[in-house]
Amino acid sequence: MASITEKAMRAIFIFCGLAIILFLVGILYILLSNSMPGLIELGLGPFFAVDRWNPGAYGEPTYSLLNMIYGTLMVTLGALIFAVPVGVAAAAYLAEIASPWEREFFKPIVEILAGVPSVVLVFFGLVVLAPLIARAFNLNSGLNAFNGALLVGIMALPTIITLAEDAITAVPKEYRHASLALGGTRWQTIWKITIPAAFSGITASAMLGMGRAIGETMTVLMVTGNMVARPESFLDSVRTLSAGIAIDIGDVVFNSIHFHALFVAGLLLFLITFAVNLLADILIQRKPEVSK
Amino acid sequence: MLKTNSNVAIDKNVIQEASKPEPAKTKQFVDNEYCEVKVENLNFFYGSVQALFNVSVKVQEKGVAALIGPSGCGKSTFLRVLNRMNDLIPGTRLEGKVSIHGENIYAPNTDVVNLRKKVGMVFQHPNPFPKSIFDNIAYGPRIDGLKDKAVLSEIVETSLKGAALWDEVKDRLNEPALALSGGQQQRLCIARALAVKPRILLMDEPTSAIDPIATQRIEDLIRDLCTDYTIIIVTHNMQQAARISDYTGFFLQGEMIEWGKTSGLFTNPEDQRTEDYITGRFG
Questions:
Q1: Which residue of B has its CA nearest to A193?
Q2: What's the topology of domain A62-285?
Q3: Beta pairing partners, B103
Q4: Residue A186's closest chain B neighbor by CA?
Q5: pTM for the whole structure
Q6: What is the pLDDT of residues B192-246, one digit of tens each?
Q7: Number of domains in chain B
Q8: Is the pLDDT confidence value at A290 over 80?
Q9: What ipTM did this prediction achieve?
Q10: Residue B29 burial by Cβ neighbours in a 10 Å radius (0-12, 13-18, 19+)
Q11: Which of B82, B113, B197, B200 to mutate to test the interface with A (most CBs of A within 10 A)?
């Protein structure tokens, strides 16, 4: 009797574990099966053509994702340009400089920042950042890629800080002592020894932060201005892939080419995030070498 | 934490009562002669636990001074006082005077970075940076602002030769230092310390993590280096102290029980406790 319960429990737990894989495979299947008709009908070309996203046009609808890819890249890379230096510096501060009580004080704040719903952050983007940006650059509207990049950067910060701090803390203290004993200042030790020794972990933190940034939808939808035109600069309004899907999916005709084109955009996002996370995972596995 | 502290303190008192019948004698240096390292009435505390009691000693220029004593006797703490590495441990406190080359290194205006350039250190476990052999040696000069590649190469070569490692690594300077054997890594760390051109080298049990043959090479190296540097070495191994040092200090329970010429201390110790320790009655 006991062994039957034992086996049943085991089966339940295995099933839950396998469910994760099932979900992932299921999502990939849905994405593939729904984007395939679009890909078969149009081929890959039109999605990446130098053209517009205009699926509702009379006569010749166009399905180019290019401008939305630009938008996604601008928001993501912009976010990283802002969040990686700030995040790594904050992590170095927490790991190397902060006194114990300062650490106790700052770490929960980082966790709270991670828990702020992205929609709430949008208020900050709309009410504070947008007017500031508009005034600073003399624009009609502050809803643009720059605004989106800043907000997404703020959202990626907790991920980057937490993981980079882990990576820096994992650097053996012997390295620091060696550097200090050679007459290195604390700053030189952090900059030339500790951070390089933690490099793979820090890169992974940036990658995972990027994974968060790429998929972010609500924020960028509301603060980037939502223009599908080709952006010329960070001060132009953009639309990202994720925002594009969110906007159109509500009133698209089921099983139309437009519908399938949205799934192509989703598949693209999925593949990018998958690749980024995979890369981050590989980097995290590469622990810093430690002398025996 | 608090509990451990008080336990240690109680422990110490008990042992002191047992092993120290006469009151601690306070040495006074009346002369003002120049010497490499001069420590006067040093007391050192980790929080509320006192680790060093009234240590006074003068170390002459050049040669090897060995510090021996059982585990936890304060010899490593004493060594780290000399380049202020104890500063890294929060809650430490020091009383007394420590002078190197006539300068009080605990004066408020002391430049600790400069002090550590003058007083190099080799640690118990080899700790090369996860960088190439070349970059390990060049690290000290580089953070000092040296950029000239030719000068750096020269320093790397002289330092590696100084640490008797050059012939083994000259063809693979760009390979990772962590690929070297333990003994080679320790000589690399010695070379790395030499590259900063210190005057004093502190060594904290530098051979305790290394096999006997590599140990012998490092002992030979220490004898070679002591014509140019003042070397102060902490060792667990009394034979090692007898083999390589000119002067020896014996620590027990945070006190320097005896300090003198190695030959004298090992053959004819003044203090009964020193004799007990070196003849293996405890420790």
A1: B129
A2: MetI-like fold (1.10.3720)
A3: B100
A4: B113
A5: 0.79
A6: 999 999 999 999 999 988 889 889 999 999 999 999 999 999 998 889 999 999 9
A7: 1
A8: no
A9: 0.83
A10: middle
A11: B113
For residues B33-53, give the mean pLDDT: 89
Q: A117-173: per-residue pLDDT in tens? A: 888 899 999 999 999 999 999 998 889 999 999 999 999 999 999 999 999 999 999
B263 located within any domain: yes
Contacts of B224 (CB under 8 A, 6+ apart): B164
Domain assignments of chain A as residue spans, ordered by start: 62-285
Q: Are B246 and B232 in contact (CB under 8 A)?
A: no
Over chain A, what is the mean pLDDT?
Answer: 90
Question: Which candidate in B139, B146, B232 is best for mutational testing of the A interface (most A CBs within 10 A)?
Answer: B139
Question: Which B positions 173-212 lie with beta carbon below 8 A of chain A?
Answer: 176, 178, 182, 185, 189, 192-193, 196
